[in-house]
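Appendix B, example 12.
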Amino acid sequence: MSELGRDYQMTDEDEIFAFLERYPAVAPLLLDIRSNIRQSFGDDQVRLEMFHDPEWPEDGPKLVVSIQTHDSSREALEHFHRFNQEWWLKKRSDVDAPLLVTFEHVRRV
């Protein structure tokens, strides 16, 4: 778990750890996800957070891996497409857990 704290910014740590206890195959996958994100996005920060859909509460929470990129929209989409095509879409089908990988633009400060 300490490795996750090194690789990810986390909100709601208690809820994230409870999710990982429920879906133990996700923890090692998160390390692989981060490694593959580096190949596509470099050292952009990545955040872990829980998402609760208010319109579908019966679906339960989802763990969201959110790449915090400074890239332009075009570059970010190209990097995300490469990440999906080269790795994530193949790996995603192996995991039976509500897990989402996405990106968002952040401003440099």
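Helices lie at 2-7, 13-22, 26-41, 73-92. Residues 73-92 form the longest helix (20 residues).
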